[in-house]
Request: fold
Amino acid sequence: MTNIEVKNLVKYFGQDENEVFTVDDVSFKVAQGEFICIMGPSGGGKSTILRIIAGLEKYDNGKITGMPKEKGFVFQNFALFPWMSVKDNIGFGLKMMGLSKEQIDQRVEELIKKMGLEGFEKAHPKELSGGMRQRVGIARALAINPEVLMLDEPFSSLDEIIALRLREELLKIWEETHKTVIMVTHSAEEAAFLADKVIILSKRLARIVGIVENSLARPRNVRSKQFFRLVDKISDLL
Amino acid sequence: MVIILGANSLSIITTIVFATMIWPMIFSLVGAIKTEKLDLADAATIYGAKKGFKRLINYRLPSFLPAFLSGSIVAWGLGWDAIFGAEIIARVNGIGGYLGQLSYAGKAALLFLGIIIYLILIFVLNQLIWLPLLRLTTRYQND
Reply:
């Protein structure tokens, strides 16, 4: 269990003379058990940073340390395997780890209960609503019991009510398990409600323009003055 | 292939049928690879189906199955055409060859009946094999 450190991360896009930075000298630390939000304008490379940390994309310079092997990743568009049932989707990571069928079933059962997916075990992703699909996505990420949970705009493709509910559930899960969470979002309110620390990136090429420590006590009241002030502070930096 | 197998009727038929059927299969697979959902590939990577045999079995094959199947259906349809023609060209017995002979002999009523039987055969095989498979995979596809 270590802290994650990203140091002078650089990524170019394109080749030779046409090289453009997409990530330009980004450094930050994530303490173990911390909830971090990465924010920035769309197309600003925030997802790229998350994908680099997750090991899905290469980078050109810099250093990332403390990243554990097992990590959960929740995708904006769910990325559930359409040919698998809900149960098999959740158990996919465990199956790849080579666990026995009994062990997988037991763990999947737990997560189905935890995420409120009872009765949908045999359904296929196509037959589920967006909110339910993302529940499966989160369950799949939690199944392997990762030290780090990464989420790439997990609620942006859901409607507002569902998004609010899932946001609260995510917070509850984090409070129970105290996993390290790194989440990309474009909603200042979401970041203010969830995060311990908000990393704000600049327009176009991703450079850190500010890191806002969020020390509001939980549960956070989204109608309080302090909350609005914090949202304003984040929005101003954007 | 004709060179390898010799210029007998079997080799001519095999060549014609193979040459017609291979293209829809190739194109549908190329299409599937080009429109591959990148986030699904990422999910497979993150959750351990990273490379080699494990990735092939758990991610690649099932994700290409729908395209493979629709390619097969087109190939199968073209295959019917091809075998029909090939039998006539190679002058061997078979549905195509038989109908060809009827047509040369000018037996219109029998030819008509033969075509009807041929169509029924195709229809029944589609109902029994291809449509159930297609239904199965559409359920497994993303929308």
